[in-house]
Automatic annotation (TrEMBL):
Keywords: Heme, Iron, Metal-binding. It comes from Stieleria magnilauensis. SUPFAM superfamilies: Cytochrome c. Residues 56-139, 166-259 form the Cytochrome c domain. This is Cytochrome c. Transmembrane segments: none annotated.
Amino acid sequence: MTNTRRSRSRQRLGYSRGVQSLATPSTQTWIGSLLLLALLAGCGKPDPADHYVRPEQVMDFAKLFGQNCSGCHGMDGQLGPAPPLNDPLFQMIISDSQISDLIHKGREGYAMPAFAIAEGGPLSDAQIQVIVDGVRKQWKSDLPAETPEPPVYQVSQDDPAGVRDGNVDAGKKLFTTVCMKCHGADGREADGQSSGDGGILSHAFGELVSDQLIRRIIITGRPDLDMPDYVELGKQSDLKRPLTEQEIIDLAAYVRSAQHAPKPVPQRVAL
Ligand code: HEC
Ligand code: HEC
């Protein structure tokens, strides 16, 4: 009570009569201890890290990734709503220029935005390079020497997952053999943390993801959500061996065709 009143009257004094009149012996000690505190706290030496850095001058990978990517790809490049980046197999199949290109231009039609200033984004070419280098340094690691050559990231640029030439019927059979035990016959199981309530074969999920993403997930799985990669997917199924390139293409073709199948007419409307 008394303290509050005193500090209130100090404030009033300060405003009305100026600093001069504040310099009574007791306020002198008060100011003195404040100065001492300030010195002890190191206020005399400004910390360069506290300086405001203009957004276009940020060149630190952790900051750039934290501000621009982690909201979707997760703090450590995993467990976000967008596909994980911290996966060694993914890092092995994608090239520096593909990563750089994606950051520059985004993935048109999907939630991956364009970041280059030239594309209306916030980042300079130099900053994008810092991110590419950081993503590599942080998450690219050598796979064991005996690892067989994995499938390519893209079958071709205009048909990344090769779905045009894929065999939908063969893909459907493979889905039953390889994917159904976790995703269910209609793709509704595996309790979609990322694929939503409709499941991976739903129209709604299909709208959100690109052909490229489907291919990539069949190759790398989602290690952060316990979906195995193409080697383990095949080995753990009746095939008892890694999926082949053609099987990956056929699976992607089937998943896409199921997602794009006409929506079933609702039987009744829930109120
Ligand atoms: C051992 C269980 C398991 C098997 C087998 C499996 N998955 Fe998955 N899959 C998961 C889990 C768990 C998730 C994450 C939760 C979700 O999205 O449903 C997932 C997610 C996905 C996603 C969404 C990924 C994302 O980033 O949103 C796709 C697409 C997918 N799986 C396709 C397949 C296909 C195609 C096959 C067969 C070739 C397959 N899965 C086999 C467990 C499995
Ligand atoms: C608003 C959400 C969002 C932000 C922010 C974002 N991404 Fe993405 N990103 C996505 C989505 C969604 C995809 C997958 C799109 C698809 O193909 O369906 C993706 C795909 C990617 C891919 C390709 C992954 C693959 O499996 O093919 C890379 C690499 C990538 N992003 C890097 C980055 C980097 C680096 C940043 C920061 C500079 C970033 N992203 C910011 C949502 C985002």
